Amino acid sequence: MSHPKKPQTYIQQAGKSQTMFLNEKACQIMIALNSVSETTITRLANMAGANLGYTSNTLLKAVMWGFVEQEKRNRETVVKITPKGREIAVILERAMEKICKPSHS
């Protein structure tokens, strides 16, 4: 007897085997980065209310998708949102606003 698969929200790009799962925290990370254009991973984690490990893993996926660029400066890693990432962040922010908006009866 097979068990039904859990529904998952993801973006899948043709020709790439990577899957970027989008949940509320991942969306908040992208939206927060869009608000500052560039910052450190630690600061971004604080802005998004996410732990550092989760933020780092989310950003690695975002780099693979071309949404974010990373650069070492001294002993810190600075992350920058790309034009493609900015487009995605705007879409995510609009979607989050609609999802979180209280419904009026």
What does this 3D model show about the protein?
- The protein is α+β, with helices and mostly antiparallel strands and 105 residues long.
- The chain has a single domain, classed as Orthogonal Bundle (Arc Repressor Mutant, subunit A), CATH 1.10.10.
- Helix content is 50%, strand content 20%.
- It is built from four helices and five strands.
- It has a three-stranded antiparallel β-sheet. Strands 1-2 form a two-stranded antiparallel sheet.
- It starts with 9 loop residues before the first strand and ends in a 5-residue tail after the last helix.
- The relative contact order is 0.16.
- Mean pLDDT is 83; it is low at 6-11.
